[in-house]
Amino acid sequence: MLSQLRRIVQDVAQEPALDNALAGLVSSIKTALATECCSVYLADYQQQHFMLMATDGLNQDAVGKVAIGFSEGLIGWVGQREEPINLAQAHRHPRFRVTPEVSEDRFSAFLGCPIIHHRKVLGVLTIQQSAERVFSEDEESFLVTLGAQLASVLANAEMRDAASQSPSTMAKSGQLSGLPGAPGMAIGEAYVLQPSSDFDAISLKKSDEPEKELALFYRAVKITKAEFNRLAERMAGHIPADALAIFDVYHQLLDAASLGQEIELQIAEGWCAKSALKRVVEKFARQFDDMDDPYLRERGTDIRDLGQRVLNNLLDSEQRKVKLPQQVVLVADNVTATMLAEVPREQLVAIVSLRGSVNSHAAIMARALGIPAVMGVNELPLLHWQNQQVIVDGYEGHILLSPVEAICAEYRRLINEDAELSARYQQEVALPSQSACGKPFKLMVNCGLAIELETSNAEYTDGVGLYRTEFPFIMRNRFPTEQEQVELYQKVLSGYADKAVVMRTLDVGGDKALPYFSIIEENPFLGWRGIRLTLDHPEIFLVQIRAMLKANIGLDNLHILLPMISDLAEVDEAIRLIRQASFEVSDELNIALPKPKIGVMIEVPSIMYQLPELAARVDFCSVGTNDLTQYLLAVDRNNARVANLYDALHPSVLRALHQLSEQARQLQFPISICGELGGEPAGVLVLAAMGYSRFSMNNSNLAKIKWLLRRVKVAELEAILPDVLACQSPKQVKQLVQRFLEQKQLLSQLRA
């Protein structure tokens, strides 16, 4: 039964046309369950009904014509209850609706199962039989399991179908929804980047240039064969000769007499090289999967491994030939710093990440660059985006594919309005950072992506509240040397001379990976990251601290920040290593070094309850609201399935932040905010009401936050704080702040 399930799901996923996919689906289910009828109804939320989209057993003329309201009949009942309905005498049930067009009079038994994707009912699967009987538990379990597996496949298929329609149709159906990752709007051409390929991401497409597709395939095969030769040479002498024979098998499979010939035939039939490769590899792999012999079943794995290698080289060949569009919307499964480096900044207008959420690293990078981003857009296979014109709305989390000119014109008008608002904020960027009642604030910047851009407005800031040192590590193919780090840190420290620069020690792990230092963990955010990693590798930590200390000579504006602290012993060990590095540099250069201030990031909940002990050990603390929110709410901020649960304005998070502020004030322990919450209008108003006065944010947000703070009085903010802390949901908090801004007549002048 498992192999039947797998085959049905794969067949639906592989079929490029939604109608054909559904037709094949109902026939496969009917055969697998040996029933008389199988049908699928898809939900139309605009029309509020389920439409019969495919059937094997009912009247074919009813397909695409018969609609059943969300509250009507057994189909509507399945959708409302969101669970299977299993009836022996369906026609006698009070919810049964007679629909003459479908000709189902002869059927008595009915089993309906909802297809649900991200809590949304996409449709209903049904099987029917003339005999009056309750379908068995096995049959019901099969349909429920199939419905669960089909949910994401059907969501992808619907979007593929919409994306392949005419531009006029796309204006209505080509909108994708994700999570607002970074504010702003942009129009550009999608450019897909992916460091490693996956057949699941391949959308089947035709090509009218078979010679070109064959040439691409032959080139990828040639590169793959050369790779196998190198691998065989490297492994020779280390593994038995019979084990090396697998490379000969791979060579044979790629030859024209085997898989190669099948792929050539597919290309001749009009499929592009990627699609032909996918169709053939999945076809042969499924055949091996269904075999009884364990040895032969394993050959399915070999086929997939071989196909994956060819696909990697095929995509590399394509990407090398792609000319970047003038206005690039970078699309990737998970946007990384190295991907951003591949696109010139002047051409990059927006980011779309199929994975991740509002505070994933990709979103943080987008906000740092001041470009719109939408996250968690997983409804459409990655490679189907390539070369499509795209509108990205980072405020609402919407994406429009191939929009008509009228829609483009409207968004160009909105983009111009955005530019006017930004110009209004910039007019006051040189004014003091203070409230309307004169209370001073320290507004600092988070940086680390592009030094030249991030130091351009240094005179209007109060320094750097968070310099992310991991980016120089991520952008290289090896650990940077001490001298390379010295030169880099000197640029930052001298760019903000006479102002504090808070440099966070290397913080990798979680969603920040080094390409040359792989960390593979089941729960990366709860694993080996931040200070845990660098204390385990003091050779990395000491070199970085030495470089910081050398860069600070003659400037004396360095502050060192320790990330991911969860235990006081980690602080003690880090301080010991900082002292050791200071002694080494002082001895090496024979000079007395300025002593930098040392701080700790408050992002792991455990350290919140040891603030008095921290205050006795370090000079300051900085609250990382991104990770603190993640850990308090137990929500992986990169997981789109639970991203709606992640919200830094959650009452529990706000109460924790208020508690931290109160305790820090009593201890006279300097505290600041360096997380994303401190750069958002609603967040900064609530934090200012709590007593926070030092905020570090992305450079692109600084002018807006300064403009906002200059228009409110602290007493006004303090007056709404009790109501904020009494809220029971993030929605209530946002509504309360929105009412405050409306009363101050500021809401219409903010787009956040």
UniProtKB/TrEMBL annotation:
SMART domains: GAF. Residues 17-164 form the GAF domain. It is found in: Cytoplasm. Keywords: Cytoplasm, Phosphotransferase system, Sugar transport, Transferase, Transport. Its EC number is 2.7.3.9. It catalyses: L-histidyl-[protein] + phosphoenolpyruvate = N(pros)-phospho-L-histidyl-[protein] + pyruvate. This is phosphoenolpyruvate--protein phosphotransferase. It comes from Arsukibacterium indicum. The gene is ptsP.
